[in-house]
Amino acid sequence: SYVLTQPPSVSVAPGKTARISCEGINIASKSVHWYRQRPGQAPILVIYYDSDRPSGIPERFSGSNSGNTATLTISGVEPGDEADYHCQVWDSTTVVFGGGTKLTVL
Amino acid sequence: QLQMQESGPGLVKPSETLSLTCIVSGDSITSGVYYWGWIRQPPHKGLEWIGSIYHSGTTYDNPSLKSRATISVDSSENQFFLKMTSVTAADTAVYYCARLKTVGGYVDFWGQGTLVTVSS
């Protein structure tokens, strides 16, 4: 089965740029989706189809996908961005999640 | 406005069957552009997809669960269900019901989740 690998944690100072990676074999051939999950809450979609943003998600959130790595980029990080972030792909009707990355705002 | 609400026992004994219901309001389960699915999250761990169902009854399951999970739908009541057999402590998790796009397979709406603990 397809495997997605994320770093367990990423730390960034307020106002800086956070980059969270999601690695998978030839992941560029798949569409990658990203979710933010604040403590005690259900996840919400922040990026779909690699780089599209749902309505209500700030332009500070962007995504890219190339080779074996997809990346979620959060520009001008704010304290409210501190959360767990999960990547996900759809592989032959199977849904696969990465292990999740905890973003800490210093 | 779409709402999805999980319901079911919060405590299940080892070796027994876990049963959950997801009540959907604000959208019809017979909508052809969505799957309806279950996703779980053990304490302090990542998300795990359990399976999805189309309104026709076609299901897609996570092979890692070795057929212990069964998803079904009642379109007349706009509900879908999860049954998981032979549970162990490793099945302790927050269980989310979710709406997934058929094209792209992403979750565009999540229920609030319900904690199920497996313990004697």
Query: Which structural class fits the helix and strand makeup of chain B?
Result: mainly beta
Q: What are the secondary-structure elements of chain A, in order, as H or E?
A: EEEEEEEEE
Estimate what percentage of residues of chain A fall within beta strands: over 45%
Beta-strand segment tally of chain B = 11
Description of the molecule:
By secondary structure, chain A is mostly beta strands. Helix content of chain A is 0%, strand content 47%. Chain A has no helices and 9 strands. In chain A, strands 1, 3, 4, 7, 8 and 9 form a 6-stranded mixed beta sheet that branches. A 3-stranded antiparallel beta sheet of chain A has the order 2-6-5, with no helix packed on it. Chain A is globular, with a radius of gyration of 13 Å. The model of chain A has no long low-confidence stretch (mean pLDDT 96). With 120 residues, chain B is mainly β. In chain B, strands 2, 4, 5, 6, 9, 10 and 11 form a 7-stranded mixed beta sheet that branches. Chain B has a 4-stranded antiparallel beta sheet with strand order 1-3-8-7, with no helix packed on it. Chain A binds chain B through residues 1, 31, 33, 35, 42-45, 48-49, 54, 86, 88-90, 93-100, and chain B through 37, 39, 45-49, 52, 60, 62-64, 96, 100, 104-108, 110-113.
List the helices and strands and how they pair.
The complex is a heterodimer of chains A (106) and B (120).
Chain A: E1 9-12, E2 18-23, E3 32-37, E4 44-47, E5 61-66, E6 69-74, E7 83-91, E8 94-97, E9 101-105
Parallel strand pairs in A: 1-9
Antiparallel strand pairs in A: 2-6, 3-4, 3-7, 5-6, 7-8, 7-9
Chain B: E1 3-7, E2 11-12, E3 18-25, E4 34-41, E5 48-53, E6 59-61, E7 69-74, E8 79-84, E9 93-101, E10 107-110, E11 114-118
Parallel strand pairs in B: 2-11
Antiparallel strand pairs in B: 1-3, 3-8, 4-5, 4-9, 5-6, 7-8, 9-10, 9-11
